[in-house]
Amino acid sequence: MEVGYLGISIDMLPFHRWAGVYSEKYLGFSVPSQRASKSEYTRLANVVRNKNRVLQITPNAIEKTSFATILRLSQGGFFKKSLKTTIVAALDLKSNERIYNLLKLLGFLGNTVLRTKMKFQTLSVPFLNYGDGPVTPLFEEFPSMIKAIGMSEEDRSKLFKDPEFRKVFVNEWNDKSASVFPKALKEMWIVKSPVASHVGKNFEQVAIEANVEPVVHFMNLLAEHDTRIRWKCETSNHRESVRMELLSNKHCLPGFNDSGAHNLNMAFHDGGLHLLKQAVNHPDILPIEQAIYRITKEAADFFGIDAGDISVGKRADLIIIDPSKLQTDLNTEPIEDFHPHFEGSYRLIKRSGKVVQHVFINGLEAYTNNGVVAFHEDLGKKKIFGQLLRSTWN
User: Fold this and answer.
1) Which of 9, 143, 230, 263 is placed for a possible disulfide with 56 were both Cys, Cβ 3.0 to 4.6 Å?
2) Helix (H, G, I), strand (E, B) or coil at 347
3) pTM for this structure?
4) Does any domain span residue 323?
């Protein structure tokens, strides 16, 4: 904290696990912060509190008592100050379309009654995820799939053909207990497959055409095609009216973009631009000037960063956009970027067409798209385009 870090991030969601890339010893284990005790969370939170920093938390979406733990961590009192806390959780789940109301209620109770300083992070677009056969973060929700995801294709194929494994997976799929993933084959759309007739259909349609029980047929396809069958699914944030409700709520903060995480499965890098697009469409809910403030000055002040405003003496970090292009030039679907440095692999990215006209970093024009796309020749090569932003609360 003393060198300028903004705070600490804690992950309580048990579906985030070690991939076993560097060592198979811990393959499938929950990440360390999920294994911590509540007393350890409290000790870490007090360090952040004493340094006037921010605690960021991904709650356990299945175990609702985790929200009570978060409330206690953020809560102030007679002899302790409230702790600024940002909670990566405000999504409109398909698996539970009422839970977003609980989040709004928690924000209201926490910030007005219990003396917390909480902001729920919310995403400005549908939560669209891609999966390569069984390899997807969504399937880490299934205990039977944890080991399978880290296996070789040959071993996975044998596993998916095993009657006992198939029985366990079907039972997990049909389990009606709380879940983040909607577990609906009719919502999972095939975008690539060795069988051309699959593309553009959902897994339920393909199963009906094959006259096979849908979950069983899904297992058959995984056993046969493994990662060569690619699919997509909107798991949440599917209702624009609810998105706007959350994006304009004072207890929420636009964010949740996961920029840089799960690069093969999702791409929300342009979340800020999509927020502006929706603000233009719904000025009665979120005026454009308030939308700009929410993703600049409001966020900067909450996290303790000297940024987000245009004033004399401040660092000139500016983005100039053409609002007339917001409705036409933003991608809703990501594209696969095969960069030469990725050695044959790719990442999912979004393009914004001609929406972004100019980007200035520390007063220098780093990017322009005023008819011709161009990057400054020294961008990424010389340390002239900005600086590490440390906490202003040092």
Assistant:
1) 9
2) strand
3) 0.91
4) yes
